Amino acid sequence: MARPRMFDEERALDAAMHTFWEKGYEATSTQDLCEATGLGRSSIYNTFKSKHDLFHRALAHYIDTMTTAQLAVLEDTRHSAADRIRALFAMVIDGETEHRAGGRSLGCLTVNTTVELAARDGQAAGMLERDTARRLTVLRAVIEEGRRDGSIASRRDAGALARFINAAIGGMRISSQGGADRTALESIAEVTLDALTH
Amino acid sequence: MARPRMFDEERALDAAMHTFWEKGYEATSTQDLCEATGLGRSSIYNTFKSKHDLFHRALAHYIDTMTTAQLAVLEDTRHSAADRIRALFAMVIDGETEHRAGGRSLGCLTVNTTVELAARDGQAAGMLERDTARRLTVLRAVIEEGRRDGSIASRRDAGALARFINAAIGGMRISSQGGADRTALESIAEVTLDALTH
DNA sequence: GGGATTATGTATTGATTGGTTCAAAACGTG
DNA sequence: CACGTTTTGAACCAATCAATACATAATCCC
User: Fold this and answer.
1) Residue B2 pLDDT more than 70?
2) What is the percent of chain B with per-residue pLDDT over 70, rounded to a whole number?
3) B158 and which of A49, B123, B143, B171 could share a cystine (Cβ 3.0–4.6 Å)?
4) Chain C bases under 7 Å from protein CB?
């Protein structure tokens, strides 16, 4: 009945996500979003209500793809619990070395958003909190499995170990954004695993 | 020979620092800086060349006070190496629970700046890199002392352990900004120490 | 106290921000 | 082919941005 849309909404969302990922929310102008997506301003404001709304959808898109991929690794029962956590770290390190601009790592959009927006944007903070809660639940389950299969030796509370692993990932991402190279990140991951396996 | 300044430059710098700390660089307007410092715009632009310059001086002020205090704890030879690292973690946790706004932790200005600006602001990135290099050097020395006094059992490379500790602090700060409470942070610190003392 | 010097407050700069409007172009359907 | 619907691009909006200009007020030294 009407003119069909000339662009792929999913592709535009992905382009916007990468822009926010690279520059942050405040430093990204609507002009930047137009150039990244290849759309006109009115197309963007027609499809998404506002810059704020577009950001929320981009963040949801990021959380969806990232956390889903990470949890898949954690729930791969072919390997021991410790090996799954090792694989998770490898995945994070690969991501950090892969996604860079201007010789520097982009970090992680959830971490970046926690730092830049969580205090001012309740909706974004809620999305982030739900995501970490979900991640912590799975991590705790993996720890308990590792207790049974013998790959996790630490007798610390499983919840504490889960938070520790989560914090370690955040620390690796910050280190990466601060200039740490791949071997530095790998050594951090190894020491982190010591706390679990010894 | 002339009219003396009505305000304390150091005090203004401190107020500006707290504003940048709370809101980030981009989200802080010159109006915010006027209100925080109690100065007029022209006084600010007279004393500091620009918003950018004011931020750099605020960041330097932050790094100076924070890192100096932290390194003092690390170099207190009255305690064992492990106890000094323990004290460092306690200091970080106290800071996170102390500096908050709107029920949320402000995190750490160096971490926040690493995330928001390091990729775009070479000068800020340089300041941050020098700061972490300085911190890593002292941490490595503490690790080696701990090897001698017996409080550090890990046989991992001292540089790797230093980076691990630094990353752990960053991870704790991110966790705190993401909503982790004091007991959560304390449990993360305990597990982190396991990797060094076991 | 007079003159030189500086700090401060007000007003304003031009550029850019996020967001809206509107007419014309592009399609699918009858 | 023509109608009705939707996309699209360019022009436009008020607001705000960082930064400046300028006049006034305040101070010190002589």
Assistant:
1) no
2) 97
3) B143
4) 4-11, 16-22, 25-29
Neighbour tally for A59: CB within 10 Å: 25
B104's enclosing H/E stretch is: strand B104-105
Residue A193's Cβ-side half-sphere holds a number of Cα atoms within 13 Å equal to 19
Spatial separation of the C-alpha atoms in residues B62 and B34, rounded to whole Å: 19
pLDDT grade for B8, boundaries at 50, 70 and 90 = confident
Domain boundaries, chain B: 55-197
List the single residue in A with minimal CA-CA distance to B196: A195
C-alpha span between A81 and A97 (Å, rounded): 25
To which CATH superfamily is domain B55-197 assigned? Tetracycline Repressor, domain 2 (1.10.357.10)
CATH superfamily of A62-197: Tetracycline Repressor, domain 2 (1.10.357.10)
A188 CA, C9 C1': Å apart = 54
**Which residues of chain B neighbour A119 with C-beta distances below 8 Å?**
22, 101-102, 104, 106, 177
Phi, then psi, of A5 in degrees rounded to 5: -65, 135
Secondary structure, 3-state, B44-70: HHHHCCCHHHHHHHHHHHHHHHHHHHH
Strand partners, A113: none
Which positions 108-147 on chain B have a beta carbon less than 7 angstroms from any atom of strand D?
A: none
pLDDT for residue B6 is more than 90 = no
Q: How far apart are the C-alpha atoms of B116 and A117, rounded to whole Å? A: 11
pLDDT at B125 over 90: yes
